[in-house]
Amino acid sequence: MAGNAKSGKLAKSESMWAYLMVAPTVIGLLVLNIYPFLDTIKLSFSKTRPFGLYELRGVENFVQMFGSPEFWRANWNTLYFCILTVPLGILLALVVAVMLNTKIKGRTFFRAVFFLPMVVAPAAVAMVWKWIFNTEYGIINTLLAHKINWITDPNIVMITCAIVAIWSAIGYDAVLLLSGLQNISKSYYEAASLDGATKLQQFFHITLPMVSPTLFVVLIMRLMSSIKVYDLIYMMIEEANPALTSAQSLMYLFYRESYVSGNRGLGSAVVIWTVAVIGLVTVVQFWGQKKWVNYEV
Q: How far lies 229's CA from each of 75, 114, 283, in Å?
């Protein structure tokens, strides 16, 4: 009986310590994520007043949102940004990862160089590229000897932002894909070489299927990041820029409605819509992974 009582006290003590260890994470999740999201849902059905007051208005904000041409333009801009950045960004990251996985001199140095943009503040990255794309004295126009309005032309402003986004994320995605490549057994390539398979055949029949789980994770992360893009556009496109309408994303629209116009109810409705879009895209991705993701070892 004494042994059972002692083991019971030990189990209770271990449980207490377990709860104490996870408590900061749980409290942070409740305070910083769950409560703000629930408050956002409440605000999306409300009309905000000065001094933090609000008045419930039902679905009025959503009716106004869906009837706004600016909202649908922001949806298209966000979709266009995803189309520009996600496929090309992941492709380039995969190419970089394959190159870094080979036996080349200075491989560690190149890994650090490609990963460097991820440790630099997004605001600093955007400001540097804003100078590079400057119409009058930017280095790109100087090299081209031709003035191109990279940031103020509505037809190419989103392409400009996409270039910066791809450059910023390619190193991080490449490192993730590199970890997946390094988990592939060399025996597969040795057996394929003995069978006379070329490097290209080995890539499509061994590398690509085996790295597909990591590729799937990178795809989810990159799509979510592209849908939520805000800081890059905010830093590169000024409020008075004539191309702002062509570059305004959903999150930028949320910022303008909530903090510029002061309509936090409508801004919250935009956030709820964005969360719903991300959820739908994620569900579709998990449904489609069965057709191309290979989890067999």
A: 12, 21, 20
The pLDDT tens digits of the residues spanning 106-158 come to 777 777 777 777 777 778 888 889 899 988 888 998 888 888 899 999 999 99
Q: What is the pLDDT of residues 42-91, one digit of tens each?
A: 888 888 776 666 777 888 999 999 999 999 999 999 999 999 999 999 99
Contact 192, 184 (CB under 8 A): no
CA distances from residue 277 to 37, 223, 282 in whole angstroms, order as listed: 15, 11, 9
> Strand pairing partners for 54?
48
What's CA 167's distance to the chain center, in Å? 13
Tokens of 18: 């377990």
At 14, is the pLDDT very low, low, confident or very high (cuts 50, 70, 90)?
confident
The structural domains of the chain, with segments of one domain joined by +, span 2-44, 63-292
CB 130 within 8 A of CB 149: no
What type of residue sits at position 189? Y
Superfamily for 63-292?
MetI-like (1.10.3720.10)
Burial of 186 (0-12, 13-18, 19+ CB in 10 A): exposed
Q: What is the pLDDT of residues 87-109, one digit of tens each?
A: 999 999 999 898 888 877 777 77
The Cα 296–Cα 285 span in angstroms is 19
**CA-based torsion, 145, 151, 155, 161: positive or negative:** positive
Q: Burial code of 256-282, b = ≥16 C-beta within 10 A, e = fewer?
A: bbbeeeebbbbbbbbbbbbeebeeeee
C-alpha 50 chain-centroid distance: 34
234, 125 in Cβ contact below 8 A? no
Amino acid identity at 83: I
